[in-house]
Design brief:
The chain is α+β, with helices and mostly antiparallel strands. Helices cover 12% and strands 27% of the residues. The chain binds the ligand Nc1nc2c(c(=O)[nH]1)N[C@H]1C(S)=C(S)[C@@H](COP(=O)(O)O)O[C@H]1N2 and molybdenum atom (MO). The site of ligand MTE has 18 residues, from loops.
Length: 434
């Protein structure tokens, strides 16, 4: 977002640190009390915005709309763009070659706990409820917003990546010989889009956010998630109010078009720089509480478990780490004795990437890659290129290593954790020179 922080949290605290997390929560008491009158005014005279007309015209629930396939994903998954991963689909990095800065929806990865639900924007409502709102003590009197209400509120755009916490997970096994559980992603569980919608702070304030609110719990409208026979209910993950007020978007557009069904139509959260699970899709309701909230998605998942961690796991994961990827097929073959321009992208949840270095000799020597985005977006990625002229045919490993504005860089190995989260080590990309 262009403008500065909103709400009580004007610094940039590291909420992965539990002590900071606590401090942020108490600072939250300074949050402004906002009346609910603004909300009532909304209903009168709000015309249909262009986004709504477009969305209603192509309402996924209308007759003749595509039905989800066996993967539960609605959009086509051509093999040249996606690697199938069960109910998920991974972007092929070679499909980013020649693309612009943004990841288009036709190739944006999909991470679904269950099937994509087909929702109707005309009947959809966002409900806010809980002890953190004025005059809404109980679930039975939620504050409701229609799709049209949201379109009538001030809109913001935000260019940000969404990345699965398990992106790169397969490299724990293939590079480090370690066992991990979960979808064996390579590096294609990330994409950058231009999201448009309403600031979550705007909606929380209009719903009557109190100064006592500490956590919110956004919940999706997809079906219950069942893990090995245990029903864990609908996907939901608590978010501290401090982050909710800072830079989170209730997005209804992706790259200038209404959200596609697979990416959260009609409305999703976009929680910039944080683990993908925070960006809840198909948003149905948000509990706002004056006490800390918990769900399996911040207790049993999305913490680090394993060596060096307490039995209950680390603090809940928040920011993503630094990563880099080449826009090449996995196990690429390139013609020898000619010049190649290698392309790639680097990104970090800590902030802007400052530089990327490339090694074409397995890590012995490193060369600064040429950045292609000179004014990098704080929540996006940086494109870069490096010229390579291999003379000798054979097997190579290409490495890329980024450093972000906090000085965080990609190590040679990633600390093991049983779920294989946050693989931030340098990935060794195999290439054969023919
Ligand atoms: N309701 C709901 N929201 C969800 C999920 C889900 O399964 N259901 N998956 C989460 C996870 S783990 C990720 S990584 C992102 C993926 O967003 P995308 O499918 O648009 O790429 O959505 C998040 N939001
Ligand atoms: Mo994820």
């Amino acid at each position: 977002m262009r403008s500065g922080d909103v709400g009580p949290c004007t610094s940039d605290p590291d909420l992965t640190d539990e002590a900071t997390y606590e401090r942020v929560r108490s600072a939250q008491r300074a949050a402004q009390r906002v009346s609910r009158r603004g909300l009532l005014r909304l209903s009168a005279g709000a015309g249909l915005g262009a986004g709504l007309s477009a969305a209603l015209g192509s309402a996924p629930a209308s007759a003749g709309s595509p039905a989800p396939t066996s993967t539960g994903i609605v959009k086509p998954l051509p093999p040249e763009l996606f690697i199938p991963q069960g109910t998920n689909a991974e972007t092929r990095w070679e499909a980013m070659r020649g693309q612009g800065y943004l990841t288009q929806a036709d190739r944006f990865f999909v991470r679904n706990h269950v099937a994509t639900p087909l929702l109707d924007a005309r009947t959809w409502r966002l409900k806010l409820w809980g002890t953190g709102l004025h005059g809404s003590p109980a679930e039975e009197r939620p504050v409701e917003f229609t799709y049209e209400d949201l379109l009538a509120l001030p809109a913001e755009t935000l260019t940000a990546f969404i990345e699965c916490t398990g992106n790169g997970r397969s490299f724990y096994t293939s590079q480090q010989g370690q066992q991990v559980s979960g979808t064996p992603w390579k590096l294609g569980a990330v994409g950058v889009a231009r999201w448009r919608g309403v600031r979550l702070s705007t909606v929380l304030e209009r719903a009557g956010l109190t100064s006592r609110a500490v956590d919110i719990l956004p919940r999706g409208l997809d079906a219950d998630f069942v893990d090995k026979g245990e029903n864990l209910g609908r996907v939901r993950r608590p978010l501290p109010v401090a982050k909710a007020l800072k830079d989170v978007l209730l997005a209804y557009e992706m790259n200038g078009a209404p959200l596609p069904p697979d990416h959260g139509f009609p409305v999703r959260l976009v929680v910039p720089s944080w683990v993908g699970i925070a960006s809840v899709k198909w948003l149905g309701d948000i509990q706002v509480a004056d006490e800390p909230l918990f769900s399996p998605w911040n207790t049993r998942y999305y913490r680090l478990f394993g060596p060096g961690q307490p039995p209950e796991g680390s603090a809940p994961l928040t920011r993503m780490n630094v990563k880099s990827a080449f826009e090449l097929p996995w196990d690429a073959t390139l013609p020898g004795r000619r010049r190649h321009v290698l392309h790639g992208r680097s990104w970090s949840g800590n902030g802007r990437v400052r530089r990327t270095e490339v090694s074409v000799d397995g890590g012995r020597t490193w060369h600064r890659a040429r950045p292609r985005d000179t004014r990098p977006n704080p929540h996006g990625w940086v494109r870069w290129e490096h010229t390579w002229h291999p003379h000798v045919p054979g097997r190579y490993e290409l490495l890329a290593r980024a450093t972000d504005e906090t000085g965080a860089t990609q190590p040679a190995t990633a600390p093991h954790n049983t779920f294989g989260y946050l693989f931030g080590a340098v990935v060794r990309h195999p290439v054969t020179i023919a």
